Amino acid sequence: MSGSRRRRAPPPEPEYRPGQLLNWNNSAHWDYEQARPCRYCGLDTHLRDSKKAPAHKTCAEAALAQQAAEAADAYQNGHTT
Ligand SMILES: [Zn+2]
Question: What are the residue boundaries of the structural domains of the chain, listed by start?
């Protein structure tokens, strides 16, 4: 037996797809230092989005769903930019 197995790097965070829930289990999404106002609803949260901005997971998911819906609308109306 001489097969050497390559150690795989941990998989990157999967790209968000509409309808999919975000996976914020990674500690990068949790700020232990302090709670800050959510960028969407303004209530304090320890959670951070992928750009390190304070945001609740549910708020970010709602915003992403809306963006996806708007993009789909624009696509259907032929207004792709
Ligand atoms: Zn919020």
Answer: 27-76
**Ligand 1 centroid – CA 63 distance (Å):** 10
What pTM, to 2 d.p., does this model score? Answer: 0.67
Interval between CA 66 and ligand 1 midpoint (Å):
15
How sure is the predictor about 29, in pLDDT bands with cuts at 50, 70 and 90?
very high
Is the pLDDT at 81 greater than 70? The verdict is: no
Residue at token pair 């609803």: 41
**Cα(57) to centroid(ligand 1), Å:** 7
Task: Return d(Cα 23, Cα 54) in angstroms, integer.
Answer: 16
| CA–CA gap between residue 49 and residue 14 (Å, rounded) | 14
How remote is the CA of residue 14 from the centroid of ligand 1, in Å? Answer: 22
